[in-house]
Design brief:
The complex is a heterodimer of chains A (145) and B (425). Chain A has 145 residues and is of the alpha+beta class. Chain A contains 5 helices and 8 strands. In chain A, the strands form 4 sheets. In chain A, strands 1-8 form a two-stranded antiparallel sheet. In chain A, strands 2-3 form a two-stranded antiparallel sheet. A two-stranded antiparallel sheet of chain A has the order 4-5. By secondary structure, chain B is α/β, with parallel strands linked by helices. In chain B, the strands form 7 sheets. Chain B has a 5-stranded parallel sheet with strand order 3-2-1-7-19. Chain B has a 5-stranded parallel sheet with strand order 9-16-10-11-12, covered by helices on one side. Chain B has a 5-stranded antiparallel sheet with strand order 22-23-26-25-24. The chains are: A alpha+beta (145), B alpha/beta (425). Chains A and B meet through strand 2, strand 3, helix 3, helix 4 and strand 6 of A and helix 1, helix 8, strand 22, strand 23 and helix 9 of B.
Chain lengths: 145, 425
């Protein structure tokens, strides 16, 4: 499957990935409309960690042996058989946060609007994930594993 | 010929089915369940009672889940005997089912104390879909106005929350001096108690129900200290005991739960066990014990399934952890959260205004437990540090920061997590 590789040595900590991720998952998918007109404001499903000179952006690793799938008590968290991505069925999710408890990367968040989780869906259906596409320094790249 | 026979139909069974089918695409899998319902998610029963979801949403995953894996369910039947020599089981209707590999995932059942009046209409335990339906019907039929929940553990509190959501006045009676005493420390318990009280729930600690009184239906309960509480509904949620009788009769080694080795095998050939019914390795406590939680049951079932299908896989062990939201207060507790012995270091931060609490328990610079209340974001990073026994001496000061994350980890470990694949440390 295709996975997003993190190249921390190229990350500048500009956080454009967070912005474009949020926009991609907003209702309008338009930067200005999403930030000016949508409430609650769109939330990114990627996060930039930063400490002194070091920074990197991290999102769901779509683990082969995904603890969030094992921990999900409703079966909402599943592996998409086609893409191999770990996806959450928002109809099934009840917001028990078991996946947040077990994700060692800390990349599953709580949604703001409803009691469901919020995580990277690899922007399936798009040519490239928004974070990868909009990273100005190739600190995130899409690679075939 | 049944190749894989699974007794029990919840998390461990699901985990086993998924791994068996990774190795063996068409070996016949049969699941026997004493419940009449096809696969459903048990923890959702409180959500059903609360009216947050309807019965059509009770299935685990989508309703086609087992169909896709080509699994047969035998429902509403009990396995009454196992004959390990003949490699078959006998069902409650008298039929015999032969197996090649057997998985016991019989789970647990609620403890029903021998209290006087417990057979009155309106007294329930609460662990199955039928319980949820019965309680729901009873509430509607009898216009229940107030209820006593006996037990302030996870099931008790989630049930209380559901009853509150239905507009019922709830009184929780708890034997210890606080709710969630098994997984929380005092402060965390207090925050949850305040949230419950904020919804009109009453708490009576250091007490229990000694008698249920009523003519045909519950009218009131008498507590240990003599207090009488009027109510029309009583739910006993004082704990769960593993269903080990079947295994015992078959000659399988049982202590409190069924004893299993690294491969989830019992002492008898071709018989495996997983889930709430077993005692498996606790990495934090360094001992075998029961940890009845969904993720462990799934993983154990998964490991059992691999081994049943002929792929050797070892269970590394786990530790206690729970994520539970009560009255809009999300909480996560992991591992050892409130050690009473010496030799532990505790880091904690409490933000009174936001009622946000974070506590980290360490032993010899290794994290062994954590509590998060109200701010639970990235709690899993700590689960990872506990699991991987990461020495945190060099970044201990950062652990309580809101922005604590992988960036603080030692370079080698961080690169493994961030740049590499990361998970199989």
């Amino acid at each position: 499957m295709k996975k997003i590789r993190i190249r921390e040595q190229y990350c500048m900590g500009c956080r454009l990935c967070e912005i474009y991720c949020a926009v991609q998952h907003s209702k309008s998918k338009d930067l200005v409309k999403a930030y000016r007109g949508e409430y609650p404001k769109p939330v990114p499903r990627i996060l930039v960690e930063e400490k002194e000179y070091l920074s990197f952006a991290i999102q769901c690793r779509h683990c082969e042996d995904a603890p969030c799938i094992s921990a999900c008590m409703t079966g909402a968290m599943r592996r998409d058989p086609e893409s191999g991505a770990v996806l959450c069925d928002e109809e099934k999710c009840v917001g028990c946060w078991m996946c947040i408890m077990v994700c060692p990367f800390g990349v599953i968040g709580r949604g703001r609007e409803k009691k469901i989780i919020s995580k990277c869906d690899l922007c399936l259906g798009e040519e490239e994930p928004a974070c990868v596409k909009n990273c100005p320094n190739e600190a995130l790249v899409l690679e075939e594993e | 010929m049944v190749k894989y026979l699974i007794v029990g139909n919840s998390a461990a069974a699901v985990g086993a089915v998924e791994s068996i089918r990774q190795v063996d695409k068409d070996g016949r899998i049969v699941i026997v369940s004493n419940e009449p319902h096809p696969l459903y998610s048990r923890p959702l029963i409180t959500y059903l009672l609360a009216g947050q979801i309807d019965e059509s949403k009770m299935s685990y995953g989508d309703p086609m889940f087992y169909r896709r894996y080509n699994v047969e369910e035998v429902l509403g039947k009990e396995v009454v005997a196992i004959h390990p020599q003949d490699k078959n089981v006998v069902l409650s209707d008298g039929t015999t089912l032969p197996y090649q590999k057997l998985l016991l995932a019989t789970g647990g059942r609620p403890i029903f104390p021998p209290v006087e009046g417990k057979d009155l209409a309106g007294v329930f335990t609460f662990t199955t879909l039928d319980d949820a339906k019965k309680v729901g019907e009873f509430i509607e039929r009898n216009r229940v106005g107030s209820a006593v929940v006996v037990g302030g553990g996870l099931i008790g509190l989630k049930t209380a929350e559901a009853l509150i959501a239905r507009g019922i006045k709830v009184i929780i009676v708890e034997l210890t001096d606080r709710v969630l005493s098994a997984t929380f420390d005092r402060r965390a318990s207090e925050i949850v108690e305040m949230a419950l009280q904020g919804r009109g729930c009453e708490l009576m600690t250091k007490n229990t129900v000694s008698r249920v009184i009523g003519k045909e239906r519950v009218e009131k309960v008498v507590l240990q200290d003599g207090t009488e509480v009027n109510c029309q509904l009583v739910i006993f949620a004082i704990g769960v005991t593993p269903n080990t009788e079947l295994a015992k009769r078959a000659g399988i080694d049982v202590r409190k739960g069924i004893l299993v080795g690294d491969h989830m095998r019992t002492n008898l050939p071709d018989i495996y066990a997983a889930g709430d019914v077993v005692e498996a390795y606790d990495m934090v406590m360094s001992t075998n014990r029961q940890i009845a939680i969904w993720p462990n049951a799934y993983v154990q079932g998964n490991i059992a399934g691999f081994n049943m299908a002929g792929k050797a896989e070892k269970y590394d062990g786990s530790f206690a952890m729970n994520s539970v939201e009560i009255c809009d207060v999300p909480t996560i507790s992991i591992g050892l959260t409130d050690p009473q012995e010496k030799g532990y270091e505790v880091l904690e931060r409490y933000d009174e205004a936001q009622k946000a609490y974070k506590k980290i328990v360490l032993k010899d610079d290794v994290i062994v437990g954590a509590i998060f209340v109200n701010k639970i974001d990235r709690a899993g990073v700590f689960t990872g540090l506990i699991k991987n026994r990461v020495n945190v001496r060099l970044f201990k000061d950062a652990l309580l920061r809101d922005d604590f994350g992988l960036v603080w980890l030692p370079e080698k470990f961080r690169k493994h997590m961030v740049v590499g694949e990361g998970i199989e440390v």
